[in-house]
Amino acid sequence: MLVGLGRGGQQRCTADVCIGLVFDVGGLGDKSFNDAAHRGLLRAKEELGIGFRYVEPGDGSDRESALRQLALEGNQLVIGVGFIFSDDIRNLAEEFPDTKFACIDYSATPGAEVPSNLSGLRFREHEGSFLVGALAALKSESKSVGFVGGMDIPLIHKFEAGYEAGVKHVCPECEVLSTYAGTKPEAFSDPIAGKELSLAQYNRGADVIFHAAGKTGTGVFNAAKSKGKWAIGVDSDQFDDMPCCILTSMVKKVDIAVFETVRDLVQGTFEGGVREFGLAEQGVDYVFDDNNRDRIPSEIRARVEAIRQGVIDGTIKVPSK
Amino acid sequence: MSDVFGAVFSVYFLAQLVRTAAPYVLAALGGTISERSGVVNIALEGKLLVGAFCCAVGAIESGSATVGALCGILGGMVVGWLYGLAVLRFGADQIVSGVAINLLALGLTRYLLKLFYGSTANSPPAPGFGDSVWRNVLLYVVIGLVLAFQFGFRRTRFGLRLRAVGEHPEACETLGLSVLRIRWMAVLIAGGVAGLGGAWLALDNHAFVANMSGGRGYIALAAVIMGSWRPKYVALACLLFASAEALQVVMQVAKVPVPREFVQSLPYILTMVAMAGLIGRSRAPASLGKPHERG
Known about the structure:
Chain A is an alpha/beta fold and about 325 residues long. Chain A contains 9 helices and 12 strands. In chain B, about 75% of the residues lie in helices and about 0% in strands. Chain B has helices at about 1-10, 10-35, 45-60, 65-90, 95-115, 135-155, 155-165, 170-175, 180-205, 215-225, 230-255, 260-275. The radius of gyration of chain B is 19 Å and the shape is globular. The chains are: A alpha/beta (about 325), B mainly alpha (about 300).
């Protein structure tokens, strides 16, 4: 398959610092991950004067060649958006020792060493999920809340584990119903399955459902609307997807991770190794703004904020599996 | 376990079963008519996806779910026409062309989604036929289609010709029947019906989502074989697959440990059992997959 280079009238980079970025499947316009990474670059362009260009690979396995192309072009930093790049980017970092690399959701083969020119950016999703779990339990009237995962993999188990621990932290007697859409990658793009899983949970008594299921989550929101119950979004603020029924969203600040990595490069403080973004680094959070202020009463807000402080201080331990 | 029984014998479960089965039935009916005429239909997945996309666009632009459903049918027929062009007009390999159509549908819908709505993930919200499946007019269209196919195959002239063309095209040609014309009709009807299956998905979800067919076309194909190319058995096979899926959801929520991998491979396991002749006799139309050379 062809690599779609030079889309959107991108010009050759003439700035002092040039960044190359390869998007994950879905590409620009996914309203989530990829768009957030793009926002980070735009901010860096504005505030730091860098130049960048990006590649949107197809569904095939041409990700490695897109990364290689950007490294060969002489970009100082090459970024891959998504865990799927982990192993390719690690190999390329060894092959191009003078180029810096970064990977969002970095998760290479366990035990593999991280080269000094590679920054593996990871999020402590379980911490953000812990907060929305506590929020869901405090908001629930039926003492029963739900979780809908996409593909049944360790990355999503992190969300589930944090969420369940958050629920039990404020309400030990609350029930957590937990389901997954499937065991194949399609489980992240199956809203019909997401709707059936959520309806079954709502029918069993759950009144708040948190999803970590990508586009399958659209089905969760549809179910919330038809039952008049709450749903919690993920990755980015999903309020606009279903304004009636989104209590909040657990957001991963991919834009901040990208921006800070670029800033480190510009300031000459780029460091290799795994870098984690949790509550303390403001890399994960839950949405609380004018859209949902009236859905989260102040006593619930205060309680959740106290828990946030506890997690940052280390007085509350959040499990990740 | 009693939780599961309680949940299964409920109105919710029945509605869930019907919602899950309907797109399978539509796609599988399309597969049945095409295959009975002797044309393999591996492109069902692509027809579902394009049907869903066209339905969403039609419904969003017009604000009417009915217009959306009609657009879905039309979209499926266009894919059917393209497939017919490849395998009937040019005699291309049916399996290869079918796979090509599926890949094309995946890329094209995503491209158009971005072009129309500036997103690679999902379309804006579309209207639907309401939350109750029992008041969904499409449900009665599905039931009507199953009856029409069952009756039409056995009792009408077109049905008889369709089956004859699938079994022995040379004999039909000798009798003055145009094999290609009948196959063209079958392929176009198949596209329309499968396109309506895609429309069901889009209307049920109130939006198009990239790759939302999620392999349902292949499960429908398995149902065609399992139901030995006879509409009423094909529909029953769809119900069987859908009930396994619905049961899996109920058991997950009730925290009964079931290996999801097993439930998801169930349609294929049952199909192989059916092919091995363990449940009745499943025999494919004799000329299935062979291009017809006009004599």
